[in-house]
Write a structure and sequence with these properties.
single chain, mainly beta, 8-stranded antiparallel beta barrel, 8 strands
Length: about 190
């Protein structure tokens, strides 16, 4: 099931709550499920004429280590830190179009078959459906997972080509916005108390 196809017809204010509810309900009693509601996502556009950086602390999601599955979402209008208020407005309205596409998602499976029952640091690849701006692409993202008891820390860096998600950059500003955006994710996940 492609999440973006399912959720884009729902009222915008309902989508984030429904997605998180579904993520948490799926594994509510599972032993190996970890959750976050405040992971950090930072993106950088390093274009010839301008450096744009913004971040959000609103990444929500769940990882089921037993099934090696995951699902994450972020509200597209939660990013802050732009160079100006006008730049932020253009990001929301003209590029990511958060009024039409309020949520970006990544859901799928961990490729490697690690024994996650032991604490440690794991290098892994996450493969799944990556949906931004109404376009879902299959993507493989390399990540590092650190497990300590009932806590996980996940860190990843990857790129997002704008053309893969039909994000158009007007010719007048094409030297101010990079065609490929660099993204960093850092999230602490915890087991939910039963």
């Amino acid at each position: 099931m492609k999440i973006n196809r399912t959720i884009k017809h729902l009222p915008r204010k309902v989508i984030p709550g429904i997605l998180v509810f579904l993520l948490m309900a799926v594994g509510l009693h599972a032993q190996g499920v970890y959750y976050t509601e405040n992971g950090q996502v930072e993106f950088v556009s390093d274009a010839p004429l301008e450096l744009i950086r913004a971040s959000s602390n609103s990444l929500r999601g769940a990882v089921d280590l037993e099934k090696r599955t995951f699902a994450f979402s972020i509200n597209n209008n939660s990013f802050k830190g732009f160079n100006s208020a006008l730049q932020q407005e253009h990001f929301y309205e003209n590029y990511i179009e958060s009024h039409r596409y309020p949520v970006s998602v990544f859901q799928g499976k961990i490729i490697e078959d690690h024994d996650f029952s032991k604490d440690g640091t794991y290098q892994l690849r996450a493969k799944g459906d990556f949906g931004i701006h109404g376009i879902t692409q299959e993507k493989i993202i390399k990540a590092m997972l650190v497990k300590k008891g009932d806590q996980l820390e996940i860190m990843a860096e990857f790129t997002v080509p704008l053309e893969d998600h039909d994000i158009k950059i007007p010719r007048i500003v094409y030297r101010k916005i990079a065609e490929v955006i660099n993204v960093k994710i850092q999230a602490e996940l915890h087991k939910r108390e039963e």
